[in-house]
Amino acid sequence: MNSTPEEIRQRYEELSFPTLATPRVALMAGYVQHGQTTTLEHVAAVAYLSLALVRWLGLHCDERALVRGALLHDYYLYDWHDHNAAPDNWHGFTHPCHALRNAEKDFPDLTDLERDIIAHHMFPLVPSPPRHKEALVVSLVDKICSTVEVFARQPWHKAENGGTAW
Ligand SMILES: [Fe+2]
Ligand SMILES: [Fe+2]
Question: How far is the CA of 146 from the centre of ligand 2 (A)?
Answer without folding.
Answer: 7
